[in-house]
């Protein structure tokens, strides 16, 4: 019963915009994944990547993108927890899937991996745009880097580039440092800087630009330098995660296995960083990492344990919440020193950092301000790579009751004296006046 | 009809011998009063019979909710009630901001009935509180008028008050508002004041303070009492009518009354600190000075007195000037000169419209139109001048009070239509006096000249005239008896005799006034006709004009009766389909109803105590969708409720109130400018309307999908086609629209789950088209197609 209540409470407290949330609160990691492919050759050419997913317990379901029987949901229930679109050239999905269906899939809390490529179809571009990523509008443009290309036997057109410009986040890329650079061949995309949900995970070097390698440059390219994002992730407001890459080949066995040497650099890595990079990032996308949950939101007066229905002004109270992180198999205590609670009524009256006991319990104690009204305990925790925690709990604060004021105030004693002496004086006066004849 | 009958009936009964006559008169007037009470109660039941037993309008819903709380939780919880469901997120301390008189009264009645094992619901008690108290009010009117001009006038006035439309409008069954009990308290307080003034009894003075306390508990209009009585005292002093009775009538009232008033949480220290109460203290001081002067005059020789006067006057003037200067400086240092906005708008009728749009926006704070006088007091308007004349012959302390009461209340009713309610009792009293005096004159003339009884004319005439001046006699008699029993100083009785002498003289003169028989018969008939006309009008007003509960509307058309129950439909939808803690934003008019009927938290309500908060909602309503969404989102609003009358022609909808939202919003947030919403100074919503108007939230929420009703978007209230017909809502979605589209409820869309990229795709149209098709498919079916 206790446990059920906790689950119920947290489901209310986590203010997700959509009530239909796919990750079960107990095990947020995805299980069933639908992979849509242009043709089944990709299944074998990218088998290392798929195997790594399978080895982690994912249930992959390969379908051709234009398979007429493919469907994301049946009877209103989603059949999959995540979707991988390895079909850059598809013009029309088969079955009931269209852009809106994919977007609804994401909006109901499911994860998505999109790999585009040169000549990516409008369909894939539109899905990406809906998620906040704009691919280069020139359909045949590729990311070219004449200084940061990968050294290979043939000179080539420098479209196979090397990048080691990762996002600095252990949550997204894992704690183990990716030493080898990543090979990339495909199209670049740009992000809207005001879009706070999109993160550039892998960006191109400052010397890169996006253009059609086969034609001469007549106008300066629109996308240049490190503004070009090669791989980006998006965490939607409902914590659905999306990975968008401009290259399908970077997931391939060939890229996984090949050695890499950056032009102008003497170090040659035996193996490119693609496997480590993409595996780690898929762990993040599929919620094996960086997923927080907050449970047991409690507050009570200092010295009491029961949660009151409302507080009085100037009460001392204790607020506590337990925050756990999903490790892939189990919930581990989340340890951080930057979780803050607000006591909020139109603006925060109290803003306090919660202290934690390294077992996941965060707590703070403070005094209710001398203002009555309907307050909220608010925890707005948004940290790079982690799912956002947004807890709000309404609590009214009342003024003093009529009998909670001081009855006799020392400063008022002159007035008491005046009142009583007047009464006595009046009594004596009346007595004297009436009987003094 | 009752009024003329009663007084004519009362007169013949006086023709037997003295004791029997008095007994008959007493019994008869008792039954007449009983009937008046029954009539006052039953004439107010039209609303229950025609509609249902339901609480009316806006404020009564709040009072009802408070009463429910009181009945459930007891008086201490009520006193300390912090209501977190209104004025979100500020909340409201109900106990300290509400006049508790009405609630406590109804709560006590409910408790009493329940402890007698009469299981009435709180709602029933609330519905019938007002009719009960109007019966009490007509009895209080009887007492007051009897003190002034005798039993006949008292009965007439009581009958008039029992059915005066102005009072009916605020006290029909279901109109559970402060005024319902406050008018009784007002009249009763005046009665006790007059009674004290006539008797000089400290007992009545104490009762007077308690009645005043009840009035303070009940209604903010108590300031009228605490200003009118000092004015009357001042008048008495100035006209040389100072007496110890005046002192007893006034001094305890100020001291005890102020102490008691300060006990009411909502008044508290205002009882001694605001300008509304200063007049009473000033007069209190003056009264003491005058009393002191009379005392000095009594113990000094005239010559010495003159010297003393010059001395005191010169010193006193200097002191007074100094005190007044300090007082003025103190008062002037506060921006509103220590007056509340409502009081100021009474003194300066243009004040509110200039500075406080929130007061000016309330329709009952507007000045009344001339027809509303005829509607609300009807023939009394013609009788009042006659009554004033009657009060002057002869002018006594009490009749001068009536004159003063009517003079001031006429002014106040001219400033605020709501205060017509204060004016109505005064009009009834003076009209009652006028009617009964003229009946007296006419019946006496007839009797004087009828051949059958002409033999004993002289005796009868003498008796009649003595009966007419019964009031004075009564007063004198009681006083005399008191004097004899208590052995008071003889000074007063001397004065009484003095007073009596002119009255006997008047009697002698009256005997000579005898109108011709035919003219008095005709006049009598005309007067009865006038009374009949009044009764017909009152019954009509009670049945047709003032019984609508305003939450249920009806209209008659060629195909029968239409009932519009949209408000309750909407509130029921909110109650059943939204979360308990959801916040509903609407214009403040609907706040009380939303909390009471839908039990949802509101942002602002009819207790307009926080101008900024209301201005925030006004600003949101006058802003474009996105800005409005941000404002509402910051207030945790989930639903927005608008009232729209364009489809059925319900004129008091939000579009017609919208300019007030702009004004109130613009008063606090200057980026909202009224001229932006007006085209060449005209408020319009057709194709000539300004873009600001056509894009504001209120327009969009009111007219969203309106064109689907008739294909043209013809607004029946504004009698025009709307300016912008086809538009989509980006930040709000329609969740409920009532049957006649009178209430429309919208939900704030949640923030976007994703942020879209910049690239515009031609294909994106298809997706939005599909979603639109889906929406229109899911949307509410249009009842008109």
From TrEMBL, chain A:
One Pfam family here: OST48_MD
Record keywords, A-Z: Endoplasmic reticulum, Membrane, Signal, Transmembrane, Transmembrane helix
Membrane topology type: Single-pass type I membrane protein
The organism's place on the tree of life at top rank: Eukaryota
BP GO terms, sorted: protein N-linked glycosylation via asparagine
Transmembrane segments: 413-435
InterPro entries, sorted: DDOST_48_kDa_subunit (IPR005013), OST48_MD (IPR055459), OST48_N (IPR055457)
Primary subcellular site in the record, as a coarse category: endoplasmic reticulum
Domain OST48 N-terminal, chain residue ranges per copy: 32-285
Signal peptide: 1-22
Domain OST48 middle: 299-436
Keyword match Signal: yes
Role summary: Subunit of the oligosaccharyl transferase (OST) complex that catalyzes the initial transfer of a defined glycan (Glc(3)Man(9)GlcNAc(2) in eukaryotes) from the lipid carrier dolichol-pyrophosphate to an asparagine residue within an Asn-X-Ser/Thr consensus motif in nascent polypeptide chains, the first step in protein N-glycosylation. N-glycosylation occurs cotranslationally and the complex associates with the Sec61 complex at the channel-forming translocon complex that mediates protein translocation across the endoplasmic reticulum (ER).
Binding partners and assembly: Component of the oligosaccharyltransferase (OST) complex.
Name of this chain's protein: Dolichyl-diphosphooligosaccharide--protein glycosyltransferase 48 kDa subunit
Organism in which the protein naturally occurs: Hibiscus trionum
TrEMBL record, chain B:
GO cellular component annotations of the record: endoplasmic reticulum membrane
Alphabetically ordered keywords of this record: Endoplasmic reticulum, Glycoprotein, Glycosyltransferase, Magnesium, Manganese, Membrane, Metal-binding, Transferase, Transmembrane, Transmembrane helix
Low complexity: compositionally biased ranges: 462-471
Membrane topology value: Multi-pass membrane protein
Gene3D superfamilies: 3.40.50.12610
Pathway participation: Protein modification; protein glycosylation
Record protein name field: dolichyl-diphosphooligosaccharide--protein glycotransferase
Lineage: Eukaryota, Viridiplantae, Streptophyta, Embryophyta, Tracheophyta
